[in-house]
Design goal:
single chain, mainly alpha, 6 helices, elongated
């Protein structure tokens, strides 16, 4: 079961990484287009090569229309896509000031509580995202510039949130087995084995 969730988590992280690369390319294209648009509108270019400036502007040289809307939805998806890998590898930030001095049982208990609460929070986020997506579908709300349905961004994020919640619930069950069996199955405060 661990191999399945680990593989799924890594797959989601790859998707999140690919999304970030696409968003970086989109941002670069938009910034270059915005700069060129300003350059072709400048008095210098319009006085030296007015025909070329008009031709370039007529081609549509400028920022990518709706780039902010696409980046907003893409970044939200990427955040949720990275959460499963972070959860299964124990990659979340932690403060271990007192845990080093506590017994293994107390550390297992704390890890169980933390992972259970985290699973419940991720489950709540997934449920609320689903509810928000349904609300946006019913309202027919669209983005300002692209006029694409807002619920598409919710749906993308929901995929990552559901996988993150499933992985977190799995980890919480593993932590409960560790607590009940008084043995370590996954390392409690470090990356899980590959």
């Amino acid at each position: 079961m661990y191999r399945f969730f680990n593989g799924l988590s890594r797959f989601m992280a790859y998707l999140g990484g690919m999304m970030l690369v696409l968003l970086i390319l989109l941002t670069c294209i938009s910034v270059v287009g915005r700069s060129l648009n300003g350059f072709f509108h400048s008095g210098l270019v319009e006085s030296i090569a007015p025909g070329f400036a008009k031709w370039a502007l007529d081609l549509g040289v400028g920022p990518v229309n709706g780039d902010f809307e696409l980046i907003e939805a893409g970044v939200a998806f990427s955040i949720f896509a990275f959460m499963p890998l972070c959860q299964i590898t124990g990659g979340h930030a932690s403060v271990e000031l007192l845990s080093k001095t506590m017994s293994p049982f107390i550390n297992r208990l704390l890890q169980f509580i933390i992972d259970t609460v985290f699973a419940l929070v991720l489950l709540l986020i997934a449920v609320q995202l689903y509810s928000g997506m349904l609300s946006k579908m019913r309202s027919g709300q669209t983005t300002l510039l692209l006029e694409s349905p807002v619920w598409w961004g919710y749906a993308l994020s929901l995929v990552g949130a559901v996988v993150a919640a499933a992985v977190a619930i799995y980890i919480a069950f593993i932590r409960s087995a560790e607590l009940a069996g008084r043995k370590t199955i996954l390392p409690p405060f470090q990356s899980a084995p590959n």
